[in-house]
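Input record (Table S2, row 459):
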Amino acid sequence: MNQVNRTRRKNDLLGWPVIGWFFTNSKIMLGVRLIVLALLGSAIYFGLVYPTQETNPYTGALFWSLFWPFFLIVSMATLGTVFCGICPHSFVGKYLNRLGPQKPLPGWLKNRWLGFGLLLMAYWVPLYAFPDVLKTPWVSAVFFLVLTTFAWVMFYRYRNMAYCSSLCPIGTVTSAFSKVGFAQLKTDQTHCETCRSFDCTKACEWNLRPYFFEKKNSMGDCTLCMDCAQACNAVELTLTRPSKQLSQPSTAKEPMNVWVYVWLLAVISITMRFHHSLGHSAIKEDLPWVQAGQWLEAMMPVPMLDWVGVVALTMAVTLTFAIVWGTFAISARLIQMPVKTYFQSVGQFMAPLMLIGALSHIGSFFFLHYASDLMNAGYWLVGSAATAEPLATFRDGWVHLFGLFNYVAVIWALWVLHKRLGYLAVSGFQRATLWLISGGIIWFYLFLVVFRALIPSGH
Ligand code: SF4
Ligand code: SF4
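Output record (iron/sulfur cluster complex):
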């Protein structure tokens, strides 16, 4: 390791007792990566061998009660791309990359829309259209087996871990949403200015230059693998103000990020509010997507297809894009700016709306499902006949306190919008007007949350 003579700052997590030791110790990181690889491999294996939910509570619990809510959502909302740092795809991919022919990635594959579009079409659409199919152990196992095989082939063939920076759908999501959290990898510039060894860059298999991260206010495609931090102690993992990377301008060219925010806001936050939250309320039968879906079910029945889910998704996506584009078009016109430029300048506020809002679901579902799912997966793995009951039910009032995350998400999004508008050359009155208009999707989200809170449950 390049040991420069310096004392770590107080807000540098790498100087903290447990977390610093964890990230800077290559053996500990290796152990964690091996465990995550074993979890992925076992979930896929058991999903293929025991294909139904009745015979296998393990595969579904690992993917949908551990990986998705905690390894992805909670980690993105806090430490950013930390999941990528322990990702089994890139862990094995690093070794494959060294063995492979080191070809440059062809131009047509340098398109983040390929992987992200596939995620929308192969995961989110089937999730609402065929909900009973996608979460069966066999289908989950095949889905991740195909993704894993594809990732490893790409890592083997193309140099500089190009799969992560150009194709990986998970990486597209983590790198965009990691800006919501409060940790940023950067370097101590007082040492970098005179450095001639560039050990951090030499250690980075993604060919990144961490000494530019702070200046750009972006970590680009950094996977927080910590190889650079283990190569030079001038590398820091700094605690920052939450959403610093979102609320301040960046010189990095990342036009895809805002599209990722709006798409996931539509397919996760708004569709879930329509289909699951309002869909379980006392007015369920009166909802337009339920009525249209039931009508389609009667007219064109398709085995396993949930028409109500399809219509809820379609309406949520259409409404979200209409509100976002409509309010942005009006705002852009008021200050005579092209709407696409305005979209890229202020659309970052949608990231906390989706991600922090999702914590309301994850917090309550930990007690309602995830904890007992994971305990039952453990019992099944060791051959025990014991079963764990959920830690709470919907009747426990305190479980609904996690719904407060929805209001935190609204305040957070409004604050980021306010900060982003501050970088446009507008007067105080214009800024307030733009804030009210451009926040249309935030007001709509707030309306859905409050409306749901005012009507009784349907069960
Ligand atoms: S970008 Fe994808 S493959 Fe790369 S580390 Fe992140 S999740 Fe893994
Ligand atoms: S910049 Fe550092 S932490 Fe980020 S991918 Fe490169 S080596 Fe890993």
